[in-house]
């Protein structure tokens, strides 16, 4: 007897545990094999770029928190750099160091979420995730100590940061650094030679080098494909040229490589934090910036290496108190461009894994 | 540091091949005529020495008289960058050639501009709304939306 089969269209998401938010993949399946995939965006579109046009330059900072909401500090940083470039604002030395410490800690916290949820997608439900969250909690405690918030920090301002570090911050940070090192070692012991992980993630979801560049991928997605491109090195901003750190890259661009790059990056971030913590000078944390910033007519583009990749802000000023136009280059959106190419021909469970290995945040994709 | 290339020199170089297609707007930005956009972009991507293989961002700005579309190009090989601007005219049906065939990173970004700004990119393989639903009327990023 022969069985007649036909392609089957299934909606993965918008509410699905593997979609990391509200993302929908319209998948056409032939048995277990994906034969077509169409990503559907927009469930979290809040029109943040339009909202920027109705807010003052400083008033937009809290909205940047809501882009990639697991790495608010980086978003604050990127936006403030763009405003400073546009208006020619100087940043005091101490504020630069605080910013670097905060964004690198944020990178660790964000990568912990990414890796944790990547293991969820692998099928290791919530055990690795909770390990990761144990350490993330310690980092978040430092943020809470500094600005009172645990997720959306609203900490940086054009010209510096909103308030100085509390006295108990540096001792707590110095205590946390060796602990994090120990924890990273623990992860490696548990995961590095894990056969199940290797069998599941090696060779799956390959993003070739040329394609990665062509789709404008950035961050761990690009570096996982073996391209040594990190904005902190390629186009150094703030004071990143003062620190020593390596840029880890993958070999063939599969899910495993992207996971490895994140793991190694956390160690490098810790290295930067360690160096910065020793050098923080005393002094003011915010330069004298008027309450309403009126940058001269013109435009500025500034980008940083956020945990998801190359986060850019393009600001246009007409001389008023609000941006005439604020465009956000969202790395998560660009990284998804090749999703279809990478998933078609693979099985459903690989599709979930591949999608998870990008570690996108819908707040940034839809904006 | 990503060096930003001197626009006047690049303009001179392009003028030799495509007379009248480009002009200088600032030290690091050049303005391309919408009709020649595809050729100039191909030239920028494939000419040895320029090699702009990485297109980072596309932005559209509404200036009422025209729409300005800004492309940020980067060459990973030489670590230099260039800002390319072009203009689309008319509010009913502004059109520009698509650059998806050169850089696929333009795919979602051009769709986003089409969705929010209402500029159609000719040659785009899938020109439809990306964040708003298909029945939505108007383009909310425009300055005169709901006014």
Strand and helix layout:
The complex is a heterodimer of chains A (367) and B (147).
Chain A: E1 8-12, E2 24-30, E3 33-40, H1 48-52, H2 61-65, H3 72-87, H4 93-122, H5 127-147, E4 156-157, E5 160-161, H6 169-191, H7 195-201, H8 209-214, H9 220-224, H10 231-234, H11 255-279, E6 298-306, E7 309-317, E8 325-329, H12 331-335, H13 339-343, H14 348-357, H15 362-366
Antiparallel strand pairs in A: 1-2, 2-3, 4-5, 6-7, 7-8
Helix pairs in contact in A: 3-4, 4-5, 4-11, 4-14, 5-6, 6-11
Chain B: E1 3-4, H1 7-17, E2 22-24, E3 29-32, H2 37-46, E4 54-62, E5 66-75, E6 80-89, E7 95-97, H3 106-117, E8 120-122
Parallel strand pairs in B: 1-6, 3-6, 7-8
Antiparallel strand pairs in B: 2-3, 4-5, 5-6
Can you characterise this structure?
The complex is a heterodimer of chains A (367) and B (147). Chain A has one domain (45-342): Orthogonal Bundle (Cytochrome-c3 Hydrogenase, chain B), CATH 1.10.645. Chain A is 47% helix and 13% strand. Chain A has helices spanning 48-52, 61-65, 72-87, 93-122, 127-147, 169-191, 195-201, 209-214, 220-224, 231-234, 255-279, 331-335, 339-343, 348-357, 362-366, and strands at residues 8-12, 24-30, 33-40, 156-157, 160-161, 298-306, 309-317, 325-329. In chain A, strands 1-2-3 form a three-stranded antiparallel beta sheet. Chain A has a three-stranded antiparallel beta sheet with strand order 6-7-8. In chain A, strand 7 and strand 8 (325-329) form a beta hairpin. In chain A, helix 6 packs antiparallel against helix 11 (255-279). The longest helix of chain A is centred in the first third of the chain and has 30 residues, at 93-122. The N and C termini of chain A lie far apart (52 Å). The mean pLDDT of chain A is 88. Chain B has three helices and eight strands; from the N terminus they run E-H-E-E-H-E-E-E-E-H-E. Chains A and B meet through helix 8, strand 6, strand 7 and strand 8 of A and strand 4 and helix 3 of B.
């Amino acid at each position: 007897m022969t069985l007649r089969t036909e392609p089957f269209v299934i909606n993965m998401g918008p509410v699905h545990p593997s979609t990391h938010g509200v993302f929908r993949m319209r998948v056409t399946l032939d048995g277990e094999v994906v034969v077509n995939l169409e990503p559907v965006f927009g469930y979290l579109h809040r029109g943040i770029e339009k909202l920027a046009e109705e807010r003052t330059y400083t008033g937009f900072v809290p909205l940047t928190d809501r882009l990639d909401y697991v790495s608010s500090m980086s978003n604050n940083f990127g936006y403030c750099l763009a405003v400073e470039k546009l208006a020619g604002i100087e940043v005091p030395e101490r504020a630069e160091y605080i910013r670097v410490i905060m964004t690198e800690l944020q990178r660790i916290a964000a990568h912990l979420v990414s890796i944790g949820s990547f293991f969820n997608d692998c099928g290791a439900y919530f055990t690795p995730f909770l390990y990761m969250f144990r350490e993330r909690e310690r980092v978040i405690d430092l943020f809470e100590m500094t600005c009172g918030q645990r997720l959306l920090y609203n900490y940086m301002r054009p010209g510096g940061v909103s308030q100085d570090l509390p006295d108990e911050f540096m001792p707590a940070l110095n205590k946390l650094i060796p602990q994090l090192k120990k924890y990273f070692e623990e992860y490696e012991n548990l995961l590095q030679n894990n056969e199940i992980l290797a069998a599941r993630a090696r060779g799956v979801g390959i993003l070739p080098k040329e394609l990665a560049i062509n789709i404008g991928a950035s961050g761990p997605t690009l570096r996982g494909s073996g391209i040594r491109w990190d904005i902190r090195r390629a186009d150094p901003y703030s004071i990143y040229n003062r620190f020593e750190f390596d840029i880890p890259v993958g070999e063939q661009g599969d899910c495993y490589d992207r996971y490895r790059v994140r793991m190694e990056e956390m160690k490098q971030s810790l290295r930067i934090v360690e160096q910065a913590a020793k050098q923080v000078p005393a002094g003011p944390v915010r330069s004298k910036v008027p309450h309403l910033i009126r940058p001269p007519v013109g435009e500025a583009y500034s980008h940083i290496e956020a945990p998801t990749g190359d986060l850019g802000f393009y600001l246009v000023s007409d001389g008023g108190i609000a941006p005439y136009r604020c465009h956000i280059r969202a790395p998560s959106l660009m990284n998804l461009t090749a999703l279809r190419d990478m998933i078609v021909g693979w099985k459903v469970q690989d599709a979930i894994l591949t999608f998870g290995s990008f570690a996108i945040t819908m707040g940034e994709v839809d904006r | 540091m990503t060096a930003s290339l001197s626009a006047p020199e690049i303009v001179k170089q392009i003028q030799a091949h495509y007379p009248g297609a480009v002009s200088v707007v600032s030290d690091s930005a050049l303005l391309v005529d919408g009709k020649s956009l595809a050729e100039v972009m191909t030239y920028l991507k494939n000419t040895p020495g320029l090699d702009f293989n990485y297109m980072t961002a596309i932005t559209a700005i509404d200036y009422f008289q025209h729409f300005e579309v800004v492309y940020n190009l980067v060459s990973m090989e030489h670590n230099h960058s260039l800002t390319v601007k072009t203009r689309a005219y008319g509010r009913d049906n502004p059109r520009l050639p698509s650059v998806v065939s050169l850089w696929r990173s333009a795919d979602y970004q051009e769709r986003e501009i089409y969705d929010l700004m209402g500029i159609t990119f000719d040659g785009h393989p899938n020109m439809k709304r990306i964040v708003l639903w298909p029945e939505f009327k108007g383009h909310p990023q425009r300055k005169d939306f709901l006014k």
